[in-house]
Amino acid sequence: MKRIMNGKFYEKYSWIIFLLIGAMVLVGAIPHALGFNTDPTLVQTISGKTIDEIKILNPMFFNLYNFYFRGGGLSDLGFAFFLIVISLTAYRWGQKWAWYAFWFVPVYFLAWISLSSTLPSESKSSLLPPLVMIIVLSLVGLFLPFRKFFPNKK
């Protein structure tokens, strides 16, 4: 018995790519928002001091660092929330605005690569692979269902 599907498999389920990206961002955002630095060597490579040394030597600077670090985590939580919600609803249902909105994902992470270009080369090695992976995944998630969002007009 043949199963009839509306649309191709990769068009129908490409929304899962953005759901996974949202889940990855969420997993990274939770410890970040709680103030747990999951890559303390990055701080040491950039500043020349460990987080604990910064906390002892300059507590006011550490408070500023911690404020922005945790604020970034909260921003990531919001970003992940919208990625997950839009992928589960509008993108999954083929609403064109969601396709346009999700172009923000590769642009956002390309901006992160641009921002990291000013860092020491040792720091880039821990940042670039996940950023490039998310950019590639998001582009795949945008191009696979292209015909779903923009069908041929006959």
Descriptive terms for the model:
154 residues, mainly alpha, disordered N terminus
Topology:
Layout: H1 9-12, H2 15-33, H3 40-47, H4 51-57, H5 59-91, H6 96-101, H7 104-116, H8 121-143, H9 146-149
What this model shows, in words?
- It is a single chain.
- The protein is mainly alpha-helical and about 150 residues long.
- The protein has helices at about 10, 15-35, 40-45, 50-55, 60-90, 95-100, 105-115, 120-145, 145-150.
- Helix 4 (about 50-55) packs across helix 5.
- It has nine helices and no strands.
- It has one domain.
- The longest helix is centred in the middle third of the chain and has 33 residues, at about 60-90.
- The radius of gyration is 19 Å and the shape is elongated.
- The chain is about 75% helix and about 0% strand.
Please give a quick description of this structure.
By secondary structure, this protein is mainly α. It contains nine helices and no strands. The relative contact order is 0.16.
Distance between the termini: 31 Å
Count all strands and give the number. 0
Taken as a percent bin, the fraction of beta residues is under 5%
pLDDT averaged residue by residue: 90
Content-based structural category? mainly alpha
Overall body shape = elongated
Estimate nothing, just give the exact number of structural domains.
1
Strand/helix succession: HHHHHHHHH
Biggest sheet features? none
Spatial extent as radius of gyration: 19 Å
* Low-confidence blocks of residues: 1-5
Question: Considering DSSP H and I runs of 4 or more, what fraction of the residues is helical?
Answer: over 70%
Q: What is the number of helical segments per DSSP (H or I, 4+ residues)? A: 9
